[in-house]
Every structure is written in C-alpha cells, then in structure tokens.
Amino acid sequence: MRRTIRLLIAYDGSGYHGWQRQRHGEPTIQEALETRIEALCRQPVTVHGAGRTDAGVHALGMVAHFQTTAAVPMVAFTKGLNALLPKDIRILGAEEAPPDFHSRFSALGKTYRYDFCTGPVQLPGNRLYQAHYPGCFAADRLEPALAALIGAHDFSSFERSGSRDKEAAGGYGAIRTLSRASCLPVLGRADHWSIRFTGNGFLRQMVRILAGTLIEIGQGKRPAEEMAAILAARNRAAAGHTAPACGLFLEQILYAPPIFCP
What we know:
Blueprint: E1 3-11, H1 29-41, E2 48-49, E3 58-68, H2 79-84, E4 89-97, E5 109-117, E6 131-132, H3 143-149, E7 151-154, E8 175-185, E9 192-199, H4 206-218, H5 227-233, E10 248-254
Parallel strand pairs: 3-10, 5-6
Antiparallel strand pairs: 1-3, 1-4, 2-3, 5-9, 5-10, 7-8, 8-9
C-alpha cells in the first residue's frame, strides 16, 4: 500500500546549495534527505518540500513529504533518519499524511525570520546565522513601512530579477498577501534584531530584499514613506539591497488543520 509520509525538518543551510537537488551534484537538502530515505525504504523516493530555500538559508520548520510502499515503522523516519543524516539536518517529526496531502500545495502560508546585528563587532559564532550591519539602527523608523506592506500587493519590486517569467499566463503573478510584518529586538538586546513576515507566499529572494530595504530605512538611509512608492514602481531597482542569505530562517509552514501539533 502506498503511504504518504510528511516530515518536519530543521537544517543549517550554510554548507548547502539550497533545498533543490542540483544538476551538477552540489550538496543540497533535498539530495541529502532522498539519499537517506532511499537507504531506509530500499526504493527510490522524491521528497517534495513546502518551498525552495536558497543557498545558505536555514530552516526551523520546513515541511516535506514523500510516498513509499515500504513497510518501514514510523520511528525509522525520525530516529533512524537522524542517525543517517549529517548533523546539520534534523527530523523533528514524522507522521502519516492523507493521500492528497502535498507539502507545497496544501500550505496556506509561511513565516520567515531575518536576523541581523548592529553592534560594532559581530561574534564569530553568529556570522553564519546573522547578518552584520554595524551602526545606528532605529526600529521605530520602520513602523510606517511595515504597515504599508500588510495586505495584498504586487511585490515585483522585491523579486530577484529574472527569477520568473513575467509574461507567463495564469497564476498570481507577483501578487502576494502579507498578514504580519514586524521588527523586534532579540532577547531585549539593543543590537540584535529579527524581522518577521507571515504571508500566503513569497517570491524569489523577496524576504531578503524586503529585509535589506527595511534595514536601510532603520539606518536612516531612506524614508519609511517611500515604501508605498517602491511597491507601486513594480521595479526591482526601486527597492534596497538584497540582504545576505545567512540571516534568513524559514520558521513555519501554515496548514489547516495545523499539523505536527504537540
């Protein structure tokens, strides 16, 4: 009998060329998972992720699924897989899913977090998990810009150039809906910050470009009131720089009903 298995995965993306398997054999999260699952199931599998994180991007709550006819006990997809996987990839949970479940197409939304510090010196242990923007930063400058992002907008200005066929028919184009956007200090520290976005979908490098633009606003390099004009421009050149991949974390994939509940 064919089974649909879904996984809750955390990974450190520092040593990988992103989620998606690469043509030339570069290490990826998908390739690492498929290789170990195939060893457990003794049959080929294709692991479908809820999204495709870029090289150097991390995840705390990626959801993926695959199908198999192997009569492997469920515990093998947690303890067994974790024994086989490199230590920078961990399976946090595994469960049987309905046959029609799809990690990507069943998802209602995602939450991303972007971490950065503004102190004069960054601790070496943080360099792979936090961007460094030394200098003055005022989070209150971001409030009008964050408010302007909430709701449904065309986010073409925050999309990596050439990442999508903008002439293709069908789909939502560059329209995405953000329900949450915030910038808060980490553990009360005045020089460690997290920007979070929750939305129904994100364009290629959208979060990193949003983060780069907001950081420029917080540093006083551009006014917050520009955000509406940047959105209206629908032009990548109107927005700020693309923040480094190291600060980006995929925190959660949203489903209804919720999955992997304690």
